[in-house]
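LAB NOTEBOOK - FOLDING QUEUE
OPERATOR: T.R.
BATCH SIZE: 2
PURPOSE: Compare the predicted structure-token outputs for two unrelated chains run back to back under identical settings.
PRIORITY: normal
REVIEWER: second-year student, initials M.K.

ITEM 1
FIELD SEQUENCE / FIELD STRUCTURE:
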Amino acid sequence: MYRDEENLYHYTYRKDGSETAGNAGAYPSGGYQPGFQEPVQEMKPVKKKSRAGVRTAALMLCAALLGGAVGGGVVYGIGRSGSETGIQVSSRPVAEVTLQSVDGKTEMTDAEVYAATVNSVVSINVTGSSGTNFFGQTVETASSGSGFILTTDGYIVTNYHVVKDANTVKVTLYNGDTYDARYIGGDEDYDIAVIKIDASDLQAVTLGDSDKLNVGDHVLAIGNPLGELTFSMSEGIASSVNRAINVDGTPFNMIQVTASINPGNSGGPLLNSYGEVVGIVSAKYSSYSSESVEGLGFAIPINDVVAMIEDIMTNGYVTNKPYLAITAGTMTEQMAAQYRYDVTEGVFVYSVEEGGAAEKAGLRMGDVIVKVGDTDVTSMENLTAAKKQYSAGDTATFTIYRDGQEMTVEVTWDAVPAEQQSEDAQSDTSLDNGQYSGGYNPFEDFFRYFYGYSGSSAQSAA
């Protein structure tokens, strides 16, 4: 093909690109004129190959392929215009993963961590009920989560929200074995729960030291995302090791990670590169305000809850959980105007239990708590977060507002009464032959009128 001076395209069959003598200039500038041009290229007939020739060629091709395979990298080639197009297949042997035990000293590859710990991870499937439908029928629910084996005789750690309000809980091991689980106890404030299966000689995890985790350290999460992709592992880094977040009104101190976290991962282990459990996968941000977000997963530091987990295993609840023995609520501007207070933020004390820690320290109905230790308190969420820094028997300095001025009092925290813990557990997820019932929320808000206050303010026990 070539282009003439008038920008018209012509086709030729000559190798040098020129037209035949008889047709050169056959199309004047006035436009295209139909005509026929004989091809100059000589067309040669295709010779028919004999069967013997075909067999010989096939044998040669097989020998070439086999010889290439034995050489350790097969090359498939097609000759074209003196060049060769080929696909190379690597002969590198499959990498073998050496199963190692977690000893706290040996750093492992991601594949080795998975091989060493996956048998300690469990899939948890829960059934429950959620009210009634239009016809008065009970609405059945189902959900999934993750957990990890803490002891060889079947104690398993998970999130409280995974087994909350469950009717049945079933645990599946990596080898496919499935067990009915018993609820031992849990705590909503810390989102931890312990369940038990009747099994022995299980592979238990090794707990690490979450205080030694640094921002930038490599972390891994193994769990049950979406309830279907069981025993999946995701990897990332620790983005923050002391992140304060709020989950459904409850404050938590969390490890922030970039590892992919999805519904169903809750309760699974967060592992370091030594295969040690440094956190309990608990939450993720999928959106913030109107923005979608990625890479914001959170895990509860294991050091924050390991003593409570052991307490739950022994007593069924957290025995040294701090208790102030008051009923209180977040102070608002409307309340400040109604009571003629000078403070508009803090925790308003609605009532004080007789003989409790608050009464012993001198707290009264109508006081406003504005600080605990060095932590400013502007809401019930702040007070709940401040409580998590203490155990029963610890002493803290409270700054309160009373009669138009601030003052300080020394408070020694009580422990949550055993009878209250028992009532909470029975109302929430008490067990009877593997069945869970109830739907008690220990932070369920209730409303009262106080000093003729016409509005209502959410209150809760502290």
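ITEM 2
FIELD SEQUENCE / FIELD STRUCTURE:
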Amino acid sequence: MKDIAAVILAAGKGTRMKSALPKVVHKVCGVPLILHVVRQVKRAGIKKIVVVAGYRKDLVVDCLKNERVEIVEQARQLGTGHALLVSAQKLRSFNGDILVLDGDVFFEDKTVLRQFFTFHAKRCVEMSILTTTLDNPFGYGRIVRESNEKVVAIREELDATPSERKIKEINTGIYLFKSKNLFSYLKGVKKNNRKKEYYLTSVVDMYLQKQKNVGCFNIDGTHAILGVNDRVQLSAIQKSLQAVIIREHQRKGVTVVDPANTYIEDGVAIGRDTCIYPYTYIEKNVRIGAGCTIGPFCKICSHSFIKDDAHIGSFVEIVRSRIGQKTRIKHLSYIGDATIGRQVNIGAGTITANYDGIKKHKTKIGDKAFIGSDTILVAPLTVGKEAKTGAGTVVPKGRNIPRRRTAVGIPARIIK
């Protein structure tokens, strides 16, 4: 959408998180909050995105290093109104509408932003506010209306009267402004008496006082918009997104036996007819083929690739490794920095010892090899095709096992 730009406010520390990190870099399903927001905005069709960073700006920049966004710095955190004003330098020549949202907001329904844009365009208003209704609105600004339902104010929690705090319609912090008057209004905002900050809601008050047309788009609870103020709300978003991720895999033909006890991060690809058993943990950037069985009680770490019809069983951890087609690693094994061919059998208790205290090293195992129980393979080394190890064998680094040969003992020796 060329006629809409987005400003994402991500400069605050998030004091209620009780963390040395900025709130927006805390992860949900393996992905920083700010990256979730950027991707949601892009899915809505917006290409011009400005992110306002401040506290620990370097961490925010690092999260977004692979995204096409512009970043401006709010050197002093003086509130949301001031943060938006800082973005003016990137939007001086922009004449469309400006979407403003926080860097910690999550939409359960991916269509919400597009619905909001449609509402704003049809009403031909100067600005629109996205609201929702919560049974427990604690911590959020309330939407104050007159008897005719006309919006007259947004009242922050700290400034609300007891009767206003009973209002359940809350401000999500998501706005759509026509760019024409926005930044001139921002320059006229005064500090809030309580927090000594410039509130973005004060700009909304200006629009209302000047009798500008202000729209208010309320979405019901089935289109939940979740924000993060503390670790409790962070876990709520985690739970919500995890359910969405698992449903998407199920709809693509993956069996997840027990979704409540399965963890799959964002950015995982799983082929159809694969079965994920309970207490499996799959990190981002993992690819699993079709017809596999994974778990129970196993962990697949980032940058691992498991090909079709492989079996990864109980208490197995796969780290930065490639597992070949129809290979079986059924019990109690650690496979790190390894490339394993097809139709390999990895016996219970096998370890690829990939770390020497300084560097990580790689293990290669050829097709149809048979690795006996409790084998330790000290990388770097290569096990040839159709080679074997006996139970309890320790293969020192560099002592490769030739094709179709068998190694036994501690240290391993080749037998006829």
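REVIEWER COMMENT (ITEM 2): The first strand starts at residue 4 and ends at 10.
FOLLOW-UP: none requested
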